[in-house]
Design a protein that fits this description.
Strand content: under 5%
Number of strands: 2
Strand order of the largest sheet: 1-2
Largest sheet: 2 strands, antiparallel
Radius of gyration: 16 Å
Helix content: 40-55%
Shape: globular
Number of helices: 5
Distance between the termini: 33 Å
């Protein structure tokens, strides 16, 4: 199914500068901001599912709109798991996650849109609950990607937030 060209860019650059593509600056986003803004962003994603061709790759080298929505739902779940690791262990190394492989293996376009919306809402609620349950002193806890990139809870939240906002931009949805 996949003709998607894997994205080899190191997106951690958004932790140091404004994103060159979407123009969003995540450096000021706190866990509290994410908790507050997440429901509105989730609803923007869910509105995309109503597009007539949401589950169709209109460009074989680009995910379908629905694939973007499922990706964001899964990304929130992955990040929630990474937060858990960071709180339970000192400087854990995160398991690898290949988002293109996940999209292909998960056959995202075959999922009913109602199931996609439910998954996004559930995973967003879990993400927000994880952040909400933290003491701010835990925001400095660290974790590592297998390539050595280091994150704190705070910067991992910013990294995830950029992914969420950037994909709205990919979908042509206004970001605020």
């Amino acid at each position: 199914m996949s003709q998607i060209v894997p994205d080899g860019k190191d997106w951690t650059v958004v932790l140091d500068t404004v994103c060159e593509q979407c123009g969003y600056d995540v450096r000021g986003i706190s866990p509290g901001d994410a908790i507050e803004q997440l429901p509105g962003h989730v609803e923007r994603y869910i509105s995309v599912l109503a597009r007539p061709d949401a589950a169709t790759r209109t460009n074989p080298a680009r995910w379908s709109d629905q694939e973007y929505v499922v990706h964001v739902a899964e990304m929130l779940e992955v990040m929630t798991g990474r937060f858990t690791l960071m709180l339970e262990r000192d400087e854990p190394e995160f398991p690898n996650w290949d988002q293109d492989q996940a999209a292909d293996e998960g056959n995202y376009n075959a999922l009913p849109s109602s199931e996609v919306a439910e998954l996004l809402r559930k995973n967003a609620a879990g993400y927000a609950a994880k952040l909400e349950g933290m003491d701010p002193v835990q925001y400095s806890r660290r974790g590592l990607r297998s390539n050595g990139a280091a994150f704190t809870v705070e910067t991992l939240n910013q990294y995830a937030w950029h992914d969420l906002v950037h994909h709205l931009w990919d979908l042509g949805v206004e970001i605020s």
